[in-house]
Each structure stands twice: as structure tokens, then as C-alpha cells.
Amino acid sequence: LACLNIPGELVSALNLINTTNLEFFPQQHKAEMFRLKATIYQKLNNSEQAHSNFSTSLSIDPGLAEGWYSWGSYCEVVYEAHGNITYLEYAASCYLQAIKIDTKLAKKLMSKFLLWLSFDNTSGGDIVGRVFDKYGEGVPSSVWLPYVSQLICSLQRPEAARAKALLFQLVQSFPQSVYYSLRTFLLDRREGSPLSKNQYSRSQQGDSSGQKQKQSPAAHEWGFGHIPTVAEAFAAGKQVMEVLRSEWALMIHELETFIHEIGTKFVPTPEERLLAVVHALLQRCYKYSSAPLTAEIPQMLKRELTQICRACFSSETVTKHEVFVKEYKDDFWRDLNPDVEGSTFPKSLGELTKCLKEWKTRLETSIAKKGCNVLKLEKESTALQHMVFENIEIPGYRQSRQISTQEEPVYVEGVLSDIEIVQRYGSSHRRITLLGSNGEKFTFLIQSGLGPSSSCDERVMSLLNAFNSVLEGNSETRRRATKFFTPAIISLWPQITLVEDHESFVSFMEVYEWFCSRFGREPDAPIMRFKELVSSALASSQEPLTSQVMLEVRYRAFNEICNQIVANSIFAQYMYKVLPTCSHLWEFRKRFATQLGLSSVISHALQVGGRSPNKIIFSRSSGAIFNSDFYPLFDSNGNVECSEPVPFRITRNIQVLLTPFCLEGIFVTTIASCAQAINSEVSLILPQLSIFFRDELLNWSWRRLRSPGPNPMDLKTMVKSNVGHTMNRFMNCSPQEVHVKNGVSSQHLQKGAYDLVEQAVNPENLCRMEGTWMPWF
To answer: What does the DSSP assignment read for 317-351?
Structure first.
């Protein structure tokens, strides 16, 4: 084994095996020796001998899972190099045999099958599908459990028939793991389906009186290679849902009651929703940092305000919330609807900002006067209070804990009576606590919003779980206990999500708001000051400013805010007051530095920007970090788009909390070791990244154009390009080989990570960020 990794020692390794007397070895060891021999021939590019020795190894011991895996890997390498579709069939066959013998290999291999079904299956005429039909019997359905969201997404691709067949298998054993994501998919896609909403609503209520035909797993409704329309994808998902309902009728009825109560009784009030809208509009105004305060309001923003006025006070709202409409509608329309006659709509961007701030203060004061931070279950939902839970598992428990399928799931025993109201940066959420059958309490935040579907968060968690498997297998990351935090995220509706939460979790923005309330300061004051300084410089200049002069203006404004308004020790003071002892503070620093390093390297690699303080949520007890709204953005060509001058967020307050010791030690080392671990397992990470970008591109296309997505060849090109750039960024963060001359190294071992940190902390880069990003904090 040692000789395999030493250049020039392969022949010595082969001679050593050839001179070994195998008569005294048991069958398994003989098979392993021939497998090693085949691997050596593979490295020596002797294809014929490699295949011959792999065949001999498995004829001696057909139950050698590592032998099937190695042979499949070799066939996959040959297929990637020459494109011979026959070797794809061989690789798929070998991998299926390996999984049947050892299901632990499924973690490494199932993403490859998903990728082949998506991009390589069409050219071979469903060759991977035929391999499944021939050798798939005996492969447990549980191996597909981590990929439920990806299989549901595949219902709108050419491999839809195969994805549907696999979902049928999962429904038989793990109905609840499929139900949440499938239900959200159907609700999100039903607008593009000719099936009426009423028809689907009847099926939602469990109306199973119609004919239910259980589909055969091998059923093909469409010709192979056909890209389903939105209606066809909806129909395929509905067929799976009908089978699920017919097989698990009582459980689904119980789940529907649970979801309906959460989705209707524990959502923000109209006042809280209006505050969230006003807050979002205010952020939009702040983003026009280069526009003078006297500038005219953009037409796009005016149209958006008109639509918002109609949406916030729609006929449904008027019917259900008469008191709210009576109190706010006339004033809101008069102040913020440009299409109303006699309205006092602002004439400039500065006036609009002032008007929105007044509305924000008014709504916050009204909500605060009610003084209600905890709701009672018996008042909000008597149905949940008296509900007898028999079949409902703790949502997302299997996926977030990565438990084996043999372990008994944890069931819901009841809902605790206290429902907390959590206010985070203009948004209101409800925190619900479920009591598990194992005696533990599971806390979830019920999030509702107008952003992308929560399936984005599910896919990110799936990708991070795959990264965790790699980090656990690498010695450098394992000894540092380096692991991504992956809470359970469950879609209940397209815009309502359950997110695993705890009372110790706060956002970075809440720390700043704590500082402002402590000293009686306005949280938006730095943003307004930055905007005033920039806009006054623009107004005083007779000619358009050059980019260099504009940078100097922003730099001076940034420095003034740092020196006069926002201190650099706010975060450190907050943690000092929150944690009981200095030992706790030191432990928090270490864990927070590790988690921040992981968050930073993945943000940089995937080019996910917009890490404003309200989107970084951390635990005060464990230092774990969760990034909300964490998904890449794409340009019109399908390439990841991120134009931010900083690779990740390391602002002044974070630097002071971490101290140079943690920043240059733990933080940088975490970035480098994580990137190194991922680069060492390229064959495992590439399929995971490819599936992630495939689904993100499909979701991006659906959100943007309401279309099923690009054709398979274009999609494959986009995915390959994005994956290649992502792996290059991981490579640049990894420790590089150092050339030593005369006892002096030419560069630092972790130069890539250090360069990124220098970019992130450079004031010239920070001052170019938007004011809403709060670079001074």
C-alpha cells in the first residue's frame, strides 16, 4: 500500500505481490491481493492486466465490496477519459454490486448515479436505467434517503421516469421523509399545471375516493430523453403523492392537521408582515448609496410600491383583518402609493427614506405596546393542544442527525404550551418546541418570507453533510473537530419553513441592536451618515466623479463612521456580558473561529455573497454558525455571479473578538485544512457539487422564468463550468507546496488563505461594500 503512493515504486510493489505465496492465505485475503495487483496495473496503464486481475479477485471472493468498488472506479476513469458508454455500464454494475454488499459505500456512490442519470444516460439510451433494472434488486431504498430533494427536482428532467420509480420505493419505507418536500414541490408547481387548485386541494384533504393506481417502478409514460413540461412534472409528483396517501392514509391525515395548524396559526400578524415589508423597502432605499438624497425615485421602485400597497391590503386582508385595514390602509396608501389621487407621495429618495423610517417607528411602537413575547398554545391552536400524536416523527431528525435507517426514529409526543415570538431585523417568527419520544425537546423556528423556496436551504444542508463526511475522513480536520453545522430544515409550504433553532441562537445584527439600545442610538444612523457623505460629495462636484475619486470619498466616509459612530469592541463586549466566565469566552472564541472559517471557505468557494449581519446567526453556547439565505446567484449565462470585493465577512468587530491568535491561527488553519480535505477527495466531491449546481440552476430558472430549465446539454455545460471554478477556488485555499532555498521558504504554506484574509480585512475593499452590508461593524 505504501508503494502505491510513491513514484517509481510500483514495479517493486508488483514484484512483492508476485513473489508472495498465496496458498497460506484465506480466500478473502487472496482476493484482496489480486485487487491490489489490479490497482498497480491500473497505475501502470496496463488495461488488459488490470481487468484480468480485478476479474480474478472477484471470482475468488464475489463478496469483496472493495473489489467491486475498485473495479467500478477504474471503469469510471476509462469512461471519463474515452467516453466509451460500455464502460459506464460496467462502472454502474460494479458500484451496484458493491452497495449491495456494503451499504456504507452508498455515501460515496449514490451522487454519481444521480449525475449519470441526469447527464450521461441519454446518450446511451437509458443504459444506467437498464443496469438498475438488471442489478438493482437487493439495493435498499434507504441509500436514496439523503437525496429526496434531488430526486423530486429530477421529476422535471429527462430522468423523470427513473426518479419517480425511486420515489415510489422510498414512499414504502420512509413516507415522512418524502412527504414534506414533495408537498412543497406540488404547491410550488401547481400554478403551471392545468390541474385546478380546487382539484389539488381536494387531494390535500385526503379525498381518496377517486381511482388510485399504484405505478410500477419501471413505468415509462414518456419517451426516454423527453423533458417534461411543468404540468407533466406536477402530474408525476401527484402520482407519487397519491400512492403515499393510499398507503399511509392515517399518518398523512395526522401530518396534514399538524402542518395546517402551524401554517395558519403561527404566522406573523398583518402588522408584523407590514413592518417586514417597510423594512425591506427601507433597505432598498439605503442601497442607492451613490444617488443623492434629492434624486428622483426610480420608476421601478414606484411600480413596486404600487404593487405592495395592493398586496398588503388585498380583498382577502380586508375580509379577515378589518381592524388592521381600518387603522393603516388610508394612511399607508396616502403616504406610499404614487397612483392614488391626492396622495402625499415623497418627491425624492431622501423624502421616501424619511417616510419609511416614520412608518417603521410607528409599526414597531404599535407592536411593542402589545408587550406579548410569548403566545399560549391553548389560545392559538386548540387542535394542536388536544391532538394525539401517534405517527409523526420529529421533522428532519433523520437528515440532520445522519442516523442509520436501522435506528428507531424519534416521534413527536406533544407540543409545549409556550410559543415564543422572535424578532429579527424587522421580521417576526414563532419558535415552537416539540417533545420527543426519547425525552428530548426539539425547538424549531417557523419562518415565513418572500424569498426563494426553502428547498434551496435543504440542498445546501445536503451538500454540507457531504462535506462533513469528507472532513470526518481527513486526519487534519478530524483532529480539529472541524464540522459544518447542519440544522434540520423542513419545507411546510413554499414560503413557510421549519428551521431547527435554540434560544441561544442570535443574529450578528441583534448584537449591534443590543449595543444601540444600550446607549440609546439609532441602528440606521451609520447607514444614513454614509449615504449623506457620499451623496454630498456627488452633489458638490460639477462633473461625474472618477472611480478613484469615488473610492476616496467612500474611504473617508467609512473611516469617519469607524472612528466616531461604531466602535470595534461591540461584539467582544456582548460576549463578555453574555458568557458566565472567561473560560467560557475562550472556548467560545475557539469554536466560533472554527465555524467562521468553515462558513468563510464555503462562501468563497460557492461565491455566495450578501453576508450582511442579519444573515449570520450563531449560537452563544456552542459557537455554531448558520447562514440564512445561503444560495448562489447566476448571470444570464448560468455562471455564478458575485461582484463583491471581499471574499467573506471578517469585519472589525469580528477581528477584535477573535484576537490575532485565533484569526491567524485557528481561522486561517481551518480554511486551509477544510480546502485541503475537499481537494483530497475530488472524486467524491465533484458529483455532489454537480448535483447541487444542477438543482440550483433549475430552481433559478423556475424562479426567474417559470420554465423547467435549460436543455440537458446547456445545463451540463453550465454545471461543469461552475463546478470547475468552485474546485479551483478550493485549490487556491489549500496549503501549497513550499520551495525551500538556503533554509528560507519562498512563500507561506497557507498563502492562499492568508491572501483571502488580507482581501477581507482591507479597508479599501470594505468601503466599497453597500451600506446595508455594514462593513464598519
So the answer is: HHHH-HHHHHHHHHHHHHHH-TTSTT----SSHHH
